[in-house]
Amino acid sequence: MKTSKAEKKRRSLPPPEPAPPGSSFPKEAFAQKSFFHQEVLHQSSKSSARVTRVTTPHGSFLTPSFVAVATNAALKGVSIDAARAANQDLIFCNSYHLLLQPGPEVIEEAGGLHKYMGMKEGSTMGPLITDSGGFQVFSLKYGTVFEDLKTAKRTDGSFDASLDVSASRGELKRAARPASPGPASRGGSRRKSSVKVTEEGVVFTSYRDGREVLLTPESTVAAQKAYGSDIIIPLDELPSYDTSREDLVKSVELTHRWEARSLREHLKDVKGQAMYGVVHGGVERDVRKGSLDYLTDLPFDGFCVGGSLGGNREEMLGMLDYVMEEYREIERSKFGRSKPLHLLGIADEASIREAVTLGIDTFDSCYPTRLARHGTLLTREGKLHIKSGKHKKSYGVPIDEKCGCDTCKKYDRAYMNHLYRASEPLFL
To answer: Active-site residue among 230, 236, 361, 364?
Structure first.
């Protein structure tokens, strides 16, 4: 496998200090936080599935649960009021996009993300989770990433994400072609993505104005402190699915050093926030176990499973089964209590159903709104391809007869078919 010039240069540098041990962190950091804790309400006797309540400063949320992604501090086509009415208790916001627009300082001056997004005490207030921004940055490094699900076609031409292998590949879904020029800038020209990784952090080019931005473990924590989110995530590197084992090991070691630095920065002023460590290791089980062993020695409040987990759903579930078996033993022997476990970037229905039985608590993804933008709706009877011509005259036929949401109560399939075909914003 070909090694990049940047990787050759990195290898020529003197080896960095190893990631610090858990014993180097203050003892009080390992104590359970009064403002953040998980309570197991029910444990399945047939699988590792569990029902829990996680308490945060801005309210609690039940698990297992789907976590909707408000990329730019807004859910696509859904207001905060509607999200809360649909029992969407925990919402995910992307630091990368907020870092570039409007900027952490603006959000902090507005009173934090909760207030900025219009959440109200006693009604729409609820917990938020933000990431480090690393996923979006490294998607630039590894070429075109399927930010929108790669269109998978049935034989009848309709869209079905379940046919798309990328939907099961984990956080980083790499295209099978080399990196292409980045998205058009505001001036209309296209710029080639530039991402440089060093021990200090990662330098990337803003897609908005072309300026260079340095993202470090410390700066991403500072940004998330400004956001005031309830759960924050440390900076990590995301190697692609086909990374060699040697490079994967080096990447995980770098991630461990970055996560330890992020955690130290966080602990300087906790501000009522919890931090989840991110377990990496690609598709190598021993590397995954090493990452899990190291990170669970550190005083993180919960954990995420990140990076590529396989080339298809079967491989992904096999890796998750292995990781969760190890994690359950760690909870018993090392923690003596439960800590939340989040699966990053995977939340299609089939994957959720399987992963819940393994003991995973929460799942984030843009999956539902991406499906909708391609003309597919989720119902209790399965996927409904509303853009299909057969729904053009489905007068009076509800989207889902058993659903009580405003959309299903007010609009029939014929009208929804029209809205999609006419590209009307009301469709979303």
So the answer is: 364
Q: Which of 131, 164, 236, 361 is catalytic?
A: 131
For residue 168, what are its two tokens? 């099961």
Tokens of 379: 């119902």
Pick the closest to residue 405 from 82, 51, 167, 108 (CA basis).
82
Find where tokens 């990784």 sit: 197
Q: Is 396 left (phi over 0), alpha (psi -120 to 50) or beta?
A: left
- For residue 64, is the peptide bond before it cis, meaning its omega torsion is within 30 degrees of 0? yes
The 3-class SS string of 136-196 reads HHHHHHCCCECCCCCCCECCCCCECHHHCHHHHCECCCECCCCCCEEEECCCCCEEECCEE
What length does the chain have? 428
Write the single-letter amino acid at 424: E
205-262 pLDDT tens trace: 888 888 899 999 999 999 999 999 999 999 999 988 889 999 999 999 999 999 999 9
Question: CA 91, CA 362: separation in Å to the nearest integer?
Answer: 11
Q: Identify each DSSP E strand in 285-392 by its residue range.
A: 302-305, 341-343, 362-365, 376-379, 382-385
The structure tokens listed for 207 are 């897609």
Reference 346, options 306, 380, 376, 383; nearest CA is: 306
Please indicate whether residue 160 is annotated as part of the active site: no
Look up tokens 């956080």; give the residue.
Answer: 171
Q: Rounded distance, CA 191 to CA 365, Å?
A: 28
Q: What does the alpha-carbon distance between residue 131 and residue 133 come to, in Å, rounded to a whole number?
A: 6
Catalytic (active site) residue 131:
yes
Alpha carbon distances (Å) from 383 to 120, 310, 351, 376, 427: 34, 25, 15, 6, 16
Report which secondary-structure segment, H or E, holds 310. Answer: none
Q: Reply yes or no on whether the pLDDT at 357 is more than 80.
A: yes
* Distance from chain centroid for Cα 26: 29
Which pTM value belongs to this model?
0.87
